[in-house]
């Protein structure tokens, strides 16, 4: 029932976003704009999407390295299938697929795998929120929608900054972080607070292993490269639809898109993806162009990303590194895995020793 409600809510959000995007638009004109586009630009765009996939796979491996040295073949397969799940499952339930698929207890614990993905998401959230805040400074005052986007950028930045502070507190003082989390939830439901605090405790245990300073520097360098390449992709595909986006404009589109797809929606992030592109283009392109070529651009970009991620995921779906049933069971299995590991950590602490993190090579 919980999953059904999430799916229905996601579909409702997607439907509402699509309705707002297409309300009052000439669908025939949008179709003609899509037909008239120069699809030769799809060739370099797909090459950029492939580069993006490998960059984020290597970057994730850096975060997992203190836990286990995972062969690139396995890491690549899990990344491909995990990002496919994120794209096709509603309400962003696919976020749990990647950490669960890579977990291989006892060498790679669920808590450690999940913590690596959370750290990755926090870094991306802070980077793109700051990017959006600064690029919006170049948009003329009084532009429709500018104030809303600036507020959204600041709110996203504050949310991820707060999460970063919590991670730092958890890393330095696990007991304090767990108490803070428990007190925040206790007024809502003491039972929920107790259960959630236990899972957070296990999660923070997984956070304890961090890469070396050199690897941390490499992680942030790859984060910069990752988002730089994403921005180039926005520029490249836009040319096929007659939009000559400058540096600031391209990264404004990228920042708004990232914030937009953070909203849980239906399968494929449909609706929120297109709405974010349209909203960002409307900041600096004529309304008539946005209504036709802008809608075509948004939908082709969405379809291209969906195709690339699903194609990569399907290519590795039946490899020896992936168990198909784990993908749909990931959210529940992640929760149960954290509860199990929390009990193990508690038992080990009562015995005077903590469980050792795996350092073996995962096969």
TrEMBL record:
The keyword Transmembrane helix applies. It is found in: Cell membrane. Pfam families: LPG_synthase_TM (PF03706). The keyword Transcription regulation does not apply. InterPro entries: L-PG_synthase/AglD. Keywords: Cell membrane, Membrane, Transmembrane, Transmembrane helix. It comes from the Bacteria. Residues 339-363 are annotated as: Disordered. It is a multi-pass membrane protein. The chain crosses the membrane at residues 41-63, 75-93, 113-139, 151-171, 216-238, 250-279, 299-318. This is Flippase-like domain-containing protein. It comes from Anaeromyxobacter paludicola. The lineage of its organism: Bacteria, Pseudomonadati, Myxococcota, Myxococcia, Myxococcales.
């Amino acid at each position: 029932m919980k999953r059904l409600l999430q799916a229905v809510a996601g579909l409702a959000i997607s439907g509402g976003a699509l309705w707002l995007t297409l309300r009052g638009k000439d669908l025939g004109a949008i179709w003609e704009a899509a037909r008239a586009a120069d699809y030769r630009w799809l060739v370099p765009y797909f090459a950029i999407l492939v580069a993006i996939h490998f960059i984020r796979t290597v970057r994730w491996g850096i975060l997992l390295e203190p836990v286990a040295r995972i062969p690139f073949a396995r890491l690549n397969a899990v990344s491909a299938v995990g990002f496919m799940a994120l794209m096709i499952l509603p309400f962003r339930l696919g976020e749990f697929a990647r950490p669960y698929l890579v977990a291989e207890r006892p060498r790679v614990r669920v808590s450690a795998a999940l913590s690596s993905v959370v750290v990755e998401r926090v870094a991306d959230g802070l980077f793109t929120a700051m990017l959006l805040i600064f690029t919006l400074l170049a948009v003329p005052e009084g532009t429709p929608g500018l104030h809303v986007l600036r507020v959204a950028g600041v709110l996203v930045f504050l949310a991820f900054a707060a999460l970063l502070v919590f991670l730092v507190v958890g890393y330095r003082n696990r007991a304090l972080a767990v108490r803070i989390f428990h007190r925040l939830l206790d007024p809502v439901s003491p039972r929920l607070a107790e259960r959630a605090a236990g899972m957070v405790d296990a999660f923070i245990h997984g956070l304890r292993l961090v890469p070396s300073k050199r690897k941390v520097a490499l992680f942030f360098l790859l984060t910069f490269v990752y988002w730089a390449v994403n921005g180039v992709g926005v520029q490249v595909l836009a040319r096929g639809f007659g939009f000559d986006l400058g540096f600031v404009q391209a990264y404004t589109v990228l920042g708004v898109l990232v914030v937009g797809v953070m909203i849980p929606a239906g399968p494929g992030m449909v609706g929120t993806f297109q709405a974010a592109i349209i909203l960002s283009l409307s900041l600096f392109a004529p309304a008539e162009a946005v209504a036709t070529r802008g809608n075509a651009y948004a939908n082709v970009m969405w379809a291209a990303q969906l195709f690339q991620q699903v194609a990569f995921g399907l290519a590795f779906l039946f490899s020896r590194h992936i168990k198909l049933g784990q993908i749909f069971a990931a959210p529940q299995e992640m929760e149960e895995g954290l509860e199990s590991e929390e009990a193990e950590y508690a038992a080990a602490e009562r015995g005077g020793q903590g469980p050792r993190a795996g350092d073996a090579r995962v096969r």
